[in-house]
Amino acid sequence: MANKTHDTDVEFIRALAELLNDNDLTELQVKREYGDNDSLNVRVSRKTEVVTQVAASPAPAAPAPHAPAAPAASAAADTGPGEDPASHPGAVTSPMVGTVYMQAEPGAPPFVSVGDKVSEGDTVLIVEAMKTMNHIPAPRAGTVKRILVEDGAAVEYGAPLIILE
């Protein structure tokens, strides 16, 4: 029986590695509970090269296919040097790894724009993960101060998406 569990665990880990590659993810962590004192905790990651470029003069921004680049530009301007938007008390963070969509479908108006007032539970954007569209609700009522992601951008778990104040 132990060998059968081992074989299924190996298959599970291979499936996670395939999921990692198919969705162009850098890391995936899963905990599988089997019983009271029996679990499997797996972290699959791949080495990626991060290139940081410092420009002396601003480069022209490429237009985004579905959304204007203005929200991201204003977000960068509002963030002071060394300030992490994820630590902002009004930050709404991604609950999962996936792709962000700012509107329900291409051509539709965005769920929120900078300056919009939202109520608790209102959908502020969608994160697609494994072909499932997950509506991200506002955790509380407030005004959208910054949008930190662009439509179609990939996000990691815990990445700041918007700032509500």
TrEMBL record:
Pfam families: Biotin_lipoyl. This protein is a component of the acetyl coenzyme A carboxylase complex; first, biotin carboxylase catalyzes the carboxylation of the carrier protein and then the transcarboxylase transfers the carboxyl group to form malonyl-CoA. PANTHER family: OXALOACETATE DECARBOXYLASE ALPHA CHAIN. GO terms for biological process: fatty acid biosynthetic process. Pathway: Lipid metabolism; fatty acid biosynthesis. Residues 89-165 form the Lipoyl-binding domain. GO terms for cellular component: acetyl-CoA carboxylase complex. This is Biotin carboxyl carrier protein of acetyl-CoA carboxylase. It comes from the Bacteria. It comes from Roseovarius indicus. Keywords: Biotin, Fatty acid biosynthesis, Fatty acid metabolism, Lipid biosynthesis, Lipid metabolism. Residues 55-94 are annotated as: Disordered. GO terms for molecular function: acetyl-CoA carboxylase activity.
